Every structure is written in C-alpha cells, then in structure tokens.
Amino acid sequence: MPIRLDRRSADFASQFKAFLATKREASQDVESAARAIVNDVVARGDAALIEATRKFDRLEIDASGLRITADEVKAAVAACDTATLDALKLARDRIELFHRRQLPKDDRFTDALGVELGWRWSAVDAVGLYVPGGTAAYPSSVLMNAVPAIVAGVPRVVMVVPTPDGKLNPLVLAAADLAGITEIYRVGGAQAVAALAYGTATIAPVAKIVGPGNAYVAAAKRLVFGKVGIDMIAGPSEVVIIADRNGHPDWIAADMLAQAEHDANAQSILITDSAELADEVERAIASQLTTLPRAEIAQASWRDFGGLIVVENLDQATELANALAAEHLEIMTADPEALAAKIRNAGAIFLGAHTPEAIGDYVGGSNHVLPTARSARFSSGLGVLDFMKRTSMLKCGPEQLRALGPAAVALGEAEGLGAHARSVGLRLNLQ
Amino acid sequence: MPIRLDRRSADFASQFKAFLATKREASQDVESAARAIVNDVVARGDAALIEATRKFDRLEIDASGLRITADEVKAAVAACDTATLDALKLARDRIELFHRRQLPKDDRFTDALGVELGWRWSAVDAVGLYVPGGTAAYPSSVLMNAVPAIVAGVPRVVMVVPTPDGKLNPLVLAAADLAGITEIYRVGGAQAVAALAYGTATIAPVAKIVGPGNAYVAAAKRLVFGKVGIDMIAGPSEVVIIADRNGHPDWIAADMLAQAEHDANAQSILITDSAELADEVERAIASQLTTLPRAEIAQASWRDFGGLIVVENLDQATELANALAAEHLEIMTADPEALAAKIRNAGAIFLGAHTPEAIGDYVGGSNHVLPTARSARFSSGLGVLDFMKRTSMLKCGPEQLRALGPAAVALGEAEGLGAHARSVGLRLNLQ
C-alpha cells in the first residue's frame, strides 16, 4: 500500500522523516566484478573488450567489428518510422535551442590596482556517452546527453552501446545520427567504461564519461572516476506533484504512473490540501493500472514507494517539497508561479496542469537528466556546463606585484611556507 | 633526480607518456576505519563524536563544549598579528570581488510556440566546511572555501576544525570570522564529516561538504557522498611553468620550490625551449634548497617528481601543457597571452614573470582550490557555482501542449512507456 500521511496528525513529523529516509536504491554489490573487468581491459585492451562482449552480449566480433559503420547507421535510420524520426528531430531542435542559452561567458576585468583577472571556459576534449542496450535503450536519453556536449563544443563525442545477441534499437542510432555523433562502438558494461577511460588500440580514451547504465556500469564509472570525469550516478526516478482541490485526478494519476512505470524503485508522491483529491487520485491510479502495458512495474513502485500527503495549506506543501527535493516537481494549483517561487530544492519544475512531466522528458527542450534521490539539494540537472571547464586567469605587472606582494609574503610566512614568501620576495628584491 | 626530457630525442613520446602516468597519490587504505567511525556517529550521534575526539584529538569535551564560542573567536582574533590580519582582510575582499562576478543569471524565455522555459539558480541550504588542524591549518584555505559559499548566498555555513591536544591556529578562527562564519565546532576527522552529513543532537546536518583533509577525511567524504554533496577530492598539488630563454632562473626556481614545499608528492615541471635555462633553473633550485625551511619536503618532491622538459618551440610546450593539464600553469614568455590562448587544460593560468602562483594562492582574488592530478581536463576550480544548483522550469498552456503533445506521445510509445504517452494523451483527449 502506498503511504498516506496527514499533516494534522500528531506523529506527522516522525512519519514524514521515516518516509524521507526510505531507501529505494537496490544496492547490488558488483564492485569486485566490475573491477576485474576494468583491470582486464586496462591490461589487454581490445582483446579483453572482445572477450567480454562475447561473454556478456553473446556477440562474436573482432577489433574491426567494434565500430558501428556509417552504413549501419544509415540503414538503422531508414528502418525507423517517419513520425518517430520527426518527433526525435523536434526534440533535438528544442533541446539544442534550450541548451545554447546555457553557454557560459568568459570574463576578464582589470581591478583598481591594475591586476588583470578573469576566467575562460573551454569544452572538454573528448566525451564518452554510455547508452544502455535492450529494453532500457531510450533514444530520448541519447539526445539529452549528446546535444549539450555538442552545444558545449566538445570536438569528439563517442558513443558506446551494447548489442546483446547483436540486437540494437534502430532509434538509438537514429538519435545519435541526429545529434551528430559519428563514432559509435557496439560495446557495453564495465568493459565499455574501461575502454573509454583507458583507451584500447581501437577506442581512443576520453576525458569524461556520461550516461545511464546498470549496476556494473555505475560501479565501473565510480572506479574510473579521477582518471576521467563522470556525471552523477543516477538513482531511481521520482516525481512530487503539488495540487489543490481543482486538480484533475485522472491527469495526476497518469503523471504518477508515468513515473512509476520506469522502475519498481521509482517514486510518485502527491501533496495536496484536499483529502478528496487524494482519494480520487488513489482511485484513478487503481483504475488506470488495469490497462497499463507496464502495469506490473508501476504497481510495484506505487505499492512500495508511492505517497499521498494531505496538508492544511499550500505553504506546508512547499516546505515538504523542499525537504523531498524531488527530481521532478509538478505544480497544479491556481497560481503555480507563486508556489514555485518558494521552491528551493527541485531538479525541474513543471508549471500548471498542461505541463505533464512527459513533455519535459521528450520535447520541452530542458534536460531530462536530473538529480535523483534528494540530491537536488546540492546538484543540478545535466547541462552545457557539465561538458566545459573553467580556467582562471591572473596577470600582474611589476606595479601590481608591489601592491599585492607584501600581503602574500605575510600570509606565506604566517602559514610556514617559506618558498611561497620567497617567490614573491625575490621579485620585490626583498630576499 | 628530477626527470629531464628532450623533445628531440627519439623516445620522447614514450618517456613523456610514462612521466604523465606517474602515480603521486599515496593510496592509504583507510576506508574501513573511516566507515566504522561514520557508522558510529550515525548510530550514537554526539556521544560517538565526543568519544572519537577524545581518542584522536586527545581532547576531553562534553556536548556543550563542541561549539567554539563567539568569545573564543574574539580572543583568537585578538591574539593575531595585525599585519597578518590585514593581509587576510585584503585577501578576503579580493576573493569576494572576484567571486561576485561568478554569480549566475537566471533565464526565462518564451519560444515561438508560446512555451515558457528557463531555469533558476538557488544557493545550497547549508554547507559544511572542513578545515584541517595542526600544521596543515591554512587560514587562506578557509577564505577560499568560505567566501564563495557566502557570495553564493548559502544561508548556513558551518565550519569544523579539529583541535589536537586542544590546540588551534588562531588565524584559522580569524579567517572564519572575516568570512562571516559564526557556527564552528572543534571536531575533525571522519567523525566530523559524518556529523555534518547525518547530523547529531548538537550539529544540524548540511547538504554539502567541502574542504581539504587527510586520508580519513577524504574516505569519509566518499562514503557520505550521495547523502550530501562533496567537492572534489584534492590530490597532491602541481605546477607547470612554460618559460623562454629570457626566463629568470631564480624566480622560476622559487616558484617550483613553492609548489614542492607543500608536500613530498607535489610536482613542479619546467617546459622551456632553452636548454640553458633548464640548466640554470636546476642549479638555482639546488642552491635555494639549502636555505629553505621546508627543504626536506621540497627536496623529496623535486627529486621524485620534478621535471625539466626541453622543447624545440613553444607550440610544443602548449601541446605538452595541455596533456599535463596542470592545476597551476605559469607562462613566462615574450607573449604570454598568445600562448595562453592555446591552452585548453589548466586549473589556473598565471601570466607573465610578475605573476608568481603565490599571488594567486593568497591575494589575487581567484580561487586556489583547483583541479589536481590532470583533472583540469574535465573539471574546474572551486567557485560560486559549487554552492548553487539550477532548477529548470517548463510551462505549457493548452495550446502549447497541443503543439508538442503528439511528438511526446510518439516518443513515449516508441520507448514502450505507455503511461508517459497516456499522461499527454489524456490531456489532449486522445485517450
């Protein structure tokens, strides 16, 4: 049964705290297995990659078969339904438009002393994009990860995707093609992550790896972190919906099930000031579940992690939403903007009844890779900045050094760092 | 002996590759010890914190003694040398000025369809700043970590600092006071990290933890990552200096030793097109080492990890610098700006002979917390953005949903996510 909490009940605080602390991640301990695979790829390169692909994907290839050719991509695109391709193009264009606005500006200024300061942003040299195979192969995720990298100006974006039993969703290749990715390898798992991080004879190494994957992929990403950069490790997805008594139960139920159908560990929570609406949504969910293709998964998620929270007023709703720090927050109230202004912690906010999260998942333009498991308290969704880095710049002439030098010498000496003090003092003829 | 490489030698490429791959991190395996401490603090709160403080810092306190009082801070400030305090104030003001320029802008726009999009930046609710005790207690680091958090608008910045045998560098408290931190606890190690992440009766939990620490602190930060955000795990520090034949050997030697004196694992590398300069710098280093307070540390760093690389021209120097991706890059050539324009990978660039890194360490204004161990290929120095997060915003009305909805339905169906499609379709009366 999904949990039902009432803000007026005497033990609400402790119940909500327990609900907040619910662990949803299935912690599979696969680190040692991932480590063995990574070490093997580091030691033996392509040979290890080919062997792991034979073992895990049941696919026989040699080094020359690792790369997916331009002809194969062309054939995949031709195999796709035109309406779906058009939808992907619309998504690509809108994601690009949104992310272009995230391109950061360099800064350079001269202060009152004449010191020149500033910073410069530059794209990461090479990025690897992991794309899962099989049922979790989502072309929309290819776009959400690749387009910001391309917009950032990353000169080399490499995609890896496993093809278990040789099978690959043609829409994944079509999305890569639409994003402008031309270097694609049919490898997956920890072995693909290792190849991207350390390089093999066939796959040149990258500087950063992004994209979702299973427990082995996540473990391998943690292991190679430091050697390369990685994005966040995504946890199970979640939505919080704040609605008042005018909320449409069927729409809300559909949105909650859209979250729940991702994964049995996904979480859907309604916060409302109307106990009646909570009842109606619960009934609508039960009803819609009967005709949902992925009913089993959605049902498990709703049963184990779903929540209906009734509050006395919408201010209480924003407080709880800030504590929940949801990946997705839908606001369906009379004045969603006023309520959104009080939200500090959320990956993305969907305003008003006509903005279901699914629009943002696909074609809104904003990124659907968002911080999960309450990490919106301290992190942001994927964006252009994740594919760039900032180099700070400092320039003094003799006069500026004379003005600032004595303070630097004083601090170097106070910290017991004599060579720091000397490096300034020598230039000032103090030493 | 420091390594000496010549770009013209036949085996330069393999020698440079080996040099690049040199491991400098001393990998102390302290994870299980850190895990036990973290678990104890989670289970027993203040009692565990007090017990660990007694054990590791040889300090007897009860819960009421955990917090450092305003009077203690005032007394510490009074105990500091005025010139050093003035230098710290100058540093604080300049760091603040620089970082204010990093405050990001929100964005909100309406596209051709009438869809409202954008994002909003907000400060992290609460940040914990770890400050090491003992000899590595650097007041400059307190400013470099605290000022960007305050500039970001973080409402609660908490500092923890161990006081082994009850001792504490008064300049650390003075720096905290100058930065505006009022909540300070005399705890350190993995226990302090655990208290910040999980909270105890005395210390309310934070959402993100930053700041340098020993191996136990680093291990604890990795363990609590996810529960809270953490900054990068800093490795040993490094400098690369590019100089032409007009470089001043004494100044370059002093800068290289300023890096080397931090840590036996630090690294100083000179890249020059002048073999004579390389010789002169090597001699100057040997000479300056004889009078350096921290000669033993600097000597070990220079001997084990130092490098002199002679190239044929400065273009080769930029290539190597991009591969080294140094935390600090000093450029002392006739036209440092032209050379800097070719640098993609560096934490910070110091332009010209009158900008020793020590200026940037203390009073330049830019941040001295920078990516180490080649991670400047994919990450940036500490800044205001590290204390903020971005929430994306999306708003459709009925018309916009009609325009975008069919594509979302198509993609939801193509990905086998029926509830996604339904959440849009219901609103369009398609289902």
Automatic annotation (TrEMBL), chains A, B:
Signal peptide: none annotated. Its cofactor is Zn(2+). The active site is at E327 (proton acceptor), H328 (proton acceptor). Coiled coil: none annotated. CDD domains: Histidinol_dh (cd06572). It catalyses: L-histidinol + 2 NAD(+) + H2O = L-histidine + 2 NADH + 3 H(+). Its EC number is 1.1.1.23. Binds 1 zinc ion per subunit. GO terms for molecular function: histidinol dehydrogenase activity; NAD binding; zinc ion binding. NAD(+) binds at Y130, Q191, N214. Pfam families: Histidinol_dh. The keyword Oxidoreductase applies. It comes from the Bacteria. PROSITE patterns: HISOL_DEHYDROGENASE. Zn(2+) binds at Q259, H262, D361, H420. Transmembrane segments: none annotated. InterPro entries: Ald_DH/histidinol_DH, Histidinol_DH_CS, Histidinol_DH_monofunct, Hstdl_DH. Pathway: Amino-acid biosynthesis; L-histidine biosynthesis; L-histidine from 5-phospho-alpha-D-ribose 1-diphosphate: step 9/9. GO terms for cellular component: cytosol. Catalyzes the sequential NAD-dependent oxidations of L-histidinol to L-histidinaldehyde and then to L-histidine. Belongs to the histidinol dehydrogenase family. This is Histidinol dehydrogenase. It comes from Rhodopseudomonas faecalis. The lineage of its organism: Bacteria, Pseudomonadati, Pseudomonadota, Alphaproteobacteria, Hyphomicrobiales. The gene is hisD.
